[in-house]
Amino acid sequence: MDVLTTAITNAVRSQEQPTKTVLSSLLAIQDKIGYIPKESMEVVSLEIPNTTVNDVWAVASFYPNFKFEEPAKCNIEICWGPTCHIAGAMEIFEEAFESLDITEEGRTQNGEIELGFNTCLGACAQAPVVAIDHHLIGRVTKSLLKNKIEGLK
């Protein structure tokens, strides 16, 4: 068994609740590894009785929060909710694109930073809002974001 398959198996088996399900197993894998590798489908199907690989894929693909590729080292989310939009989120997007040298949401060329849009980060009073690795930054300006991104490189 290779290192990744061992890590997946350990994540599934280390669940503490008495009843293990496909969903709880996928959550455990993503919590431990950071994403759900394709090898997870077979491991979960073997660990959960009466479950097929197709059953596991059906659950995994249903929930949008599951990630199927290794995450970037840093994730930046820019709020695009109505309040942030009115407060200047478009300028923040433009600065992010320029500072990261990308033209749309996604990963930088080296794959180290991922930029995404979020419909609401829940801090409207601080608009515009950016989250860097889930840490909220409010009242973001172009220069503040540029400095934060430079610090990540």
Written overview of the protein:
- The protein is an alpha+beta fold and 153 residues long.
- The protein folds into 2 domains: 3-62; 74-152, Glutaredoxin, CATH 3.40.30.
- 46% of the residues lie in helices and 13% in strands.
- The chain has helices at 3-13, 22-33, 39-47, 53-62, 82-86, 89-100, 142-152; strands spanning 74-79, 106-107, 113-118, 130-132, 135-137.
- The protein has a 5-stranded mixed beta sheet with strand order 2-3-1-4-5, covered by helices on one side.
Q: What is this structure's SSE topology?
A:
Blueprint: H1 3-13, H2 22-33, H3 39-47, H4 53-62, E1 74-79, H5 82-86, H6 89-100, E2 106-107, E3 113-118, E4 130-132, E5 135-137, H7 142-152
Parallel strand pairs: 1-3
Antiparallel strand pairs: 1-4, 2-3, 4-5
Helix pairs in contact: 1-2, 1-3, 3-4, 6-7
Short description:
The protein is an alpha+beta fold. It has 7 helices and 5 strands; from the N terminus they run ααααβααββββα.
Structural class: alpha+beta
Please identify, by name, the CATH architecture of the largest domain: 3-Layer(aba) Sandwich
Q: Biggest sheet, open or closed, and with what strands and sense? A: 5 strands, mixed
Mean pLDDT: 96
Count of beta strands:
5
Any idea how many domains? 2
Q: Could you say what the CATH topology of the largest domain is called?
A: Glutaredoxin
* Residues in helix, %: 40-55%
Major sheet strand order: 2-3-1-4-5
